[in-house]
Write a structure and sequence with these properties.
The complex is a heterodimer of chains A (312) and B (274).
Chain A lengths: L2 H4 L13 H11 L3 H21 L2 E2 L9 E2 L3 H8 L1 H32 L6 H9 L6 H12 L6 H8 L7 H4 L1 H26 L3 H9 L4 H29 L3 H6 L9 H10 L4 H36 L1
Antiparallel strand pairs in A: 1-2
Helix pairs in contact in A: 3-15, 4-15, 5-10, 5-12, 7-10, 10-12, 12-15, 14-15
Chain B lengths: L1 H30 L3 H4 L13 H6 L9 H30 L6 H12 L4 H13 L6 H24 L4 H9 L4 H30 L2 H6 L7 H6 L9 H21 L1 H8 L6
Helix pairs in contact in B: 1-12, 4-7, 4-9, 5-7, 7-9, 8-9, 9-12, 9-13
The chains are: A mainly alpha (312), B mainly alpha (274).
Subcellular location (chain A): Cell membrane
Pfam families (chain A): BPD_transp_1 (PF00528)
Membrane topology (chain A): Multi-pass membrane protein
């Protein structure tokens, strides 16, 4: 680690307290960090603590005077609520499908783009575009311009070949939301995996080829193991964002037809039903779920990070 | 055989690229059609082009003007990006150049806040804003967007600043250069592209944000994505307008993203992928 050798001014040894010079220097090292740290604690941690407190109260915003402490009642209600349990399932299904499919598609595209061909730069730019459309705009594009049964492009193209004219959003609502998200997130996965592919050691591949390895063998034994961390990173960053997805669900289906995920359900229970206590309990449960993902996620990042540090 | 192996991947890539871009291309074409042509079935590829959709979007033929929303988004995104840089730069410096003790723990604390779902703190923020009279106030969004992007920015910038060779910094110090000079003359030039990428990503995320803006703003501080939600239930009569609106509002992000494709990857992966 470089930390110990490069920062002689930092970190006064714990065994030698009191030396005013070192303590002052330690504070001088720490000081630049404090504004950001304090800001994050105040703006993100305090509201969560407040959510935690509110979750123990029976509190409907329309009847503020009837507010009272109910202990774990909200949690019991949330956990036994059929709609809420369904939205937990929806969230897991939505996130897993979108992350997995966009990861596989992203990998295929990255493998194609890793080769030399005419117009590679332009193709790359075309492929990135879906990720750069404002999420609400992308959701509107899918809802009105592509899915609409009367004038949407999908059915328009189908009508040329005399195909059926399904109403996509009402017949396959969750799939409709997933398709739009996969379209948005595949480019992101492709970008990260392409960076991974391009960081391979060409000499190693050369050597394998000299030893008679074919394309498939190189892919399975060299490329995939090298890409593992990049796949993990893509899956993790994708999950963080898609678990929290609100824009697509809100825009495409307004949470109807069994597509309400947890963020949408929490939004709805306090924004429309004004059930502050219930919404907070649901929010706390979302956090608990996220902690599971986060624990795994932090481990992935920290292994990547350790590699980085030891390489430096 | 080798000719096939050389051309097929290229062809497939072109096919995929066109396929992924097709919805955007179609949206662009539709935005230049009249509303009648836009809603035609089967779709018309050769209909006359017109600026009607754009005129409608900018409120030139009556209707709501998008300018307040566009200005709000610009203010919120730029101001929060600036605030993020002000807070993240010193923090990243303390985490990479002049390392504090347990710097990895601090870094992971920042990342963990990113994993706290937005909905977990939304209600208290809403209640606080209501009681403090800050609802429908763009500056509240600035603070929230700053908290949303600060963890990413700290991670990215510490990875960019860590690329500055320590020997160079120490040499400058030994030569008696005071800290501000070291920062502006030695650290900044090397880290500048990374700082620019960080700013870009913070801008994009703020510009795109919907949930906070939807809950905490209304009329005065409405942002561009909230303006777009007005089209959720629109019927076919407004298709060209919806397309024009979506494109205009996506334009800053599309332009910025295309301009900085490589840095974008590095930034989005928190500097972990180079």
């Amino acid at each position: 680690m470089t930390a110990t050798t490069t920062a002689p001014t930092a970190a006064p040894p714990a065994s030698a307290p009191g030396a005013p010079g070192t303590r002052l220097r330690a504070w001088a090292t720490r000081a630049p960090l404090l504004p950001a740290l304090v800001f994050m604690v105040v703006v993100t941690q305090l509201p969560f603590v407040a959510t935690l407190v509110i979750s123990f109260f029976d509190w409907n915003a329309l009847y503020p005077d009837a507010r009272r402490f109910t202990g774990l009642d909200n949690y019991r209600q949330v956990l036994t609520d059929a709609d809420l349990r369904r939205s937990v399932g929806t969230t897991i299904l939505l996130t897993a499908t979108v992350v997995l499919v966009s990861l596989v598609l992203g990998l295929l595209l990255a493998l194609l783009l890793d080769r030399r061909f005419k117009g590679r730069g332009l193709v790359r730019t075309l492929l990135i575009a879906p990720f750069l459309v404002v999420p609400v705009a992308a959701a509107l594009l899918w809802k009105h311009v592509l899915y609409n049964p009367e004038y949407g492009l999908l059915n328009g193209l189908l009508s040329y070949v005399g195909g059926p004219q399904p109403d996509w959003i009402s017949t396959t609502p969750l799939l409709a939301v997933e398709a739009s998200l996969i379209w948005q997130w595949t480019p992101f996965m492709m970008l990260i995996l392409l960076a991974g592919l391009q960081s391979r050691d060409p000499q190693q591949i050369e050597a394998a080829r000299v030893d008679g390895a074919g394309d498939w063998q190189v892919f399975v034994h060299l490329t995939l193991p090298h890409l593992r961390r990049y796949l993990e990173l893509g899956a993790l960053l994708g999950s963080i964002h898609i678990v929290q997805n609100f824009d697509a669900v809100f825009t495409l289906t307004s949470g109807g037809l069994g597509t309400a995920n947890l963020p949408y359900t929490v939004y709805q229970s306090f924004y429309q039903a004004h059930e502050n206590g219930l919404a907070s309990a649901a929010g706390v449960l979302v956090v608990l779920g996220s902690i599971v993902i986060a624990t795994f996620a932090l481990r992935v990042v920290s292994s990547l990070f350790r590699e980085e540090v030891s390489r430096a | 055989m080798s000719a096939v192996r050389r051309t097929v991947p290229g062809l497939l890539a072109w096919l995929a690229g066109t396929g992924f871009f097709l919805p955007i291309a179609w949206m662009a074409l539709t935005s230049f059609h009249s509303e009648t042509d836009a809603a035609a079935n089967p779709p018309s590829f050769t209909a006359a082009l017109t600026l009607e959709g754009y005129r409608e979007f900018f409120g030139l033929s009556g209707g709501a003007s998008p300018w307040p929303a566009l200005i709000n988004s610009t203010v919120a995104s730029l101001a929060s990006t600036l605030l993020v840089l002000l807070l993240a730069l010193p923090a990243a410096y303390a985490l990479s150049v002049n390392r504090v003790r347990k710097w990895t723990d601090v870094l992971f604390f920042f990342l963990s806040t990113k994993m706290l779902p937005v909905v977990a703190g939304l209600l208290p923020v809403y209640l606080f804003a209501r009681d403090a009279g800050l609802l429908d106030n763009i500056w509240l969004l600035v603070v929230l967007y700053t908290s949303m992007n600060l963890p990413i920015a700290v991670w990215m910038m510490q990875s960019f600043l860590a690329e500055v060779p320590v020997a160079v910094i120490e040499a400058a110090r030994v030569d008696g250069a005071p800290l501000p000079v070291v920062l502006t003359r030695v650290v900044a030039p090397i880290a500048l592209p990374g700082i620019a990428a960080t700013a870009l990503i913070c801008f994009i995320f703020s510009w795109n944000e919907l949930l906070f803006a939807r809950v905490l703003t209304g009329v005065v501080a409405e942002t561009a994505p909230v303006f777009l939600t007005g089209f959720i239930t629109s019927q076919g009569l407004f298709l060209a307008k919806v397309c024009a609106a979506s494109l205009v509002i996506s334009l800053p992000v599309l332009a910025a993203g295309f301009a900085a494709q490589d840095k974008l990857v590095q930034g989005l992966s928190l500097g972990a992928v180079k």
